[in-house]
């Protein structure tokens, strides 16, 4: 079935990898100049993140000549049409894009924030100048300069030749969030520049105003939204084949000579060639103090940047200001880096003074990751007091700024852990960012328990926590508390929004004007796991203290009021306190640091210390969307769903005589931990369950048909799919698999994905060829992304690729296909295949690789060329797999 499209040959370009390294300095004499004159076309209504489905050049078709005199329909403009306009950037590439002729106020009066979302396409030129000394004889094609291009606060850019139209431009993602410690893309020119004359290229940019990112223009006293875009272009210096990228280093603090963590990371970029890290050697003068060991094989693809993971183990206290060691890499020849990494030494904290400590750990077994911890004033007296997990707001860089750590008062007995969430935006504390929060806490516990110097400050494994957060972090606090209710003792969310679609409504959707609402429903089911409102049922027995400024200009105060109202609707007895601070804006220094919050924390800590039994309502409802990304409530955990893509619920009702009645909705398997929730007699869906005489702690139940239950002898498989983004939750670096040969486009896509995952989530990727899958240990590890039909063909020789999506549309050019697939050997991991009917379709599939929150992508999507004009309405087929990875009729849609 798959073969019909798998054998369609991809349009291939000459392989440009494996450039042999040779020392050349004349590359450095290439120069580049970006024009300051821009053409601008817009604004066009879209909803948030819709640009990932549309063509980034919408409404232009770059396969055809661009008509700069044409007008285009846009419902934002007077008369319903927009024309090209011009704009001028500053010399540093900063460009302000706005459309002051649009009557924004009038639009906004009826449509609110949703109407500020808009798309524009921007165009300028860049000119490359060859080295003065060069001539045709002294330069070879491998000397073609590569460009370092960084687009701040734009969605995509592409570089095109001026004289030819590109069937399939390679779009690179912008750094739309203006992320901390961001690196530019390394961009290959689409055609060889002249070696004797200047060559001019066009550069197109997708400029998309996102109110969540760029804010409300009212804050600046204006009605007109302004995109502040910046584009910088440089020629890459290739005089060294591998260079350090110190901004990507990760290192822990030392406290009284003790490393506060085990992870050290060294940022390295290959400018040319494939480089493998061979060894690490501690400098002789430090060898008696600590050792460093390479955590995994690291190979760096040409132009890729990776953070090399080194595990530090210490023999004695170390008080120097630098860690010194040698790192050896090999390609054809070795290259040695002498590294001296600055470290921060702090004295042991005391009751009167303390540092905010930067600890480190290995996220997903090998990604060096930093977090912050604020130690308590007093060491443990008796049982340790619960720690506090504090989730920062969007755009807050906890490492580079002290703002977030300064927002808390040090506690008497509780540690405060400030995780990064991977980056300042991450996945809004969902998915991998939630995992990072839990793993940061576990890392702190490990550091305290493993080091005798910190023994009197230790915490038990799997400590339950109090979660706090502000803004996006407030939203994240609702998320963690409602998805992991048994691990959260209490929650104090400040200035939280409910979910992205409530923050900025999707009413200006372009796609929706063309789409079968049944398809919308399937696509939007991939946002269900993010919809905090639907999971509030899980919080009825948790102390909640929500805080919100009464005049919040960023997250309107009604969001917290609504969440509290939902909670009280589920159970009027819920312990929900809402503190609305009249007149306060989004941020004020006392928002989480005040007497009422402290009294709430003290109350929770007191009730834990006095071992008061946990509150448990006689009746409660557990709501789950993706079982692998949800914990238990009072010991009850849903393990798989009847119809993934829909929510599942268990209503647990305890009678006065101790009988327990459970009603299920869309649940296929669940368990209950009887040590947390003792059960003597149980009914599920009105049928008595005959409990064995000798009960283990865990009672596993599964259906034989809907709502007909039996006890399972073994744990049921946890369902981990439900949306494409779950591919990011990997136990190890993602393996990006490309074909062995003729893989220019696939390698380019893999490098772009690796860049984006590093930029947006500090996720590490290994790029491997398909024949290496079986020798590189890839299949023992985490998730795998297969880029292109060529790579899949090779794998298919070795294991069956099951469940390809339906083949109907596959004779159409320009089709992109993305589907999750079970991992061939590891049931904890999964694969995502990016396939297509041609190279245009592969670019289209690659643009949908799930990097950002809010892009609706269920388990599988087939996307056609119409998406260029009508966004997600160009989906020809999409769906969610069943819990056993088979066809799921109610959650599938075909054109
Ligand atoms: C390129 O890098 C080399 C080695 O780091 C350095 O010596 C040289 O000055 C750089 N050239 C330019 C143009 O930056
Ligand atoms: C873009 O133009 C090419 C060449 O004219 C055409 O084949 C293609 O269908 C157009 N694409 C769209 C989405 O209109
Ligand atoms: C911390 O402990 C001190 C000394 O026992 C006490 O006076 C103070 O009230 C405590 N602070 C809090 C916030 O409980
Ligand atoms: C609320 O508490 C009252 C008094 O304890 C109890 O009778 C009632 O069942 C509770 N309601 C719910 C929904 O749990």
UniProtKB/TrEMBL annotation:
> Which InterPro entries does UniProt cross-reference here?
AB_hydrolase_fold (IPR029058), Peptidase_S9_cat (IPR001375), Plant_Biomass_Hydrol_Est (IPR050955)
> Could you tell me which residue ranges the Peptidase S9 prolyl oligopeptidase catalytic domain spans?
464-595
Magnesium found in the keyword field: no
What is the species of this protein? Answer: Marasmiellus scandens
Keywords on record:
Signal
- The name this protein goes by in its record: Peptidase S9 prolyl oligopeptidase catalytic domain-containing protein
Signal peptide coordinates: 1-16
Coiled-coil stretches: none
